[in-house]
Amino acid sequence: xxxxxxxxxxxxxxxxxxxxxxxxxxxxxxxxxxxxxxxxxxxxxxxxxxxxxxxxxxxxxxxxxxxxxxxxxxxxxxxxxxxxxxxxxxxxxxxxxxxxxxxxxxxxxxx
Length: 111
Hints:
Distance between the termini: 27 Å
Helix content: 25-40%
Radius of gyration: 14 Å
Largest sheet: 3 strands, mixed
Number of strands: 3
Order of helices and strands: EEHEH
Strand order of the largest sheet: 1-3-2
Shape: globular
């Protein structure tokens, strides 16, 4: 997944735009779930983990440049958390005045 973040003028609503083709095939349900995770984190409204709330809401235009998924390892929670992680990394880059870093994640499903 590759995302770009752009500031928007004060009073402008945050948005998520998909400027990519999802691989292996388009999966609009996962695009909506990713957008939900991004918007939830921008709004500082992580109701599932109140301790993880990072502060005041932020307005930004988020452009999804690349998105991949597969049938066996993809689920809604993964995309919600990836959206939140991407927002947190973008905000850390601004706060620390640094370039973005690759975020490596590992998701294990136990049966």
